[in-house]
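look at this:
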Amino acid sequence: MITFWPSVGDTETLYSVAARIHHVRGDASSAVTSQWLFGFPAAAGLKEIPRHLDRFVQATAGLLGTSSEILHRRTVLGVYARFIGATDVQRWIAWCSGKPSANKPFVFLRSTKLPARHPLRACVRCMDEDFQALGSSIWRLEHQLPAVRVCMHHGSVLHELS
């Protein structure tokens, strides 16, 4: 059961929300928080494509919405959904929710030739604004999109954390 819910930024990534919950809970390791939120200890390593979102929705009492809403608003799926077709979007949602799915949704991702992992990126000015508004800096979705290197709000170069 969640006893404290941090303020969440409009475009804050799921990864960022989970990291802030981890910080607030004070767990000794990300594996403990990952197990509690997603049902397996390695969830913290899945920045772009989360798994077992049904478990996350249950653990957080649905405060971020359904699995589908989280994927559309807090991950890159929301950006790509209009380009990949409804059937593939539904497969992606089913796979990430933890439901059985005939095909993993990575066929689309592989065809884009995007790297499987990329460094997290942030704008220093956005970080300052987020700290003032939310009490901490966050990972914004618009900064995590592949090939984006400049902040759309400030025009400044994004810093990468590898």
User: Anything to note?
Assistant: The CA atoms of residues 6 and 21 lie 7 Å apart. The beta strands are 120-122, 159-161. The two ends are 32 Å apart (CA to CA). The longest helix spans residues 14-25.
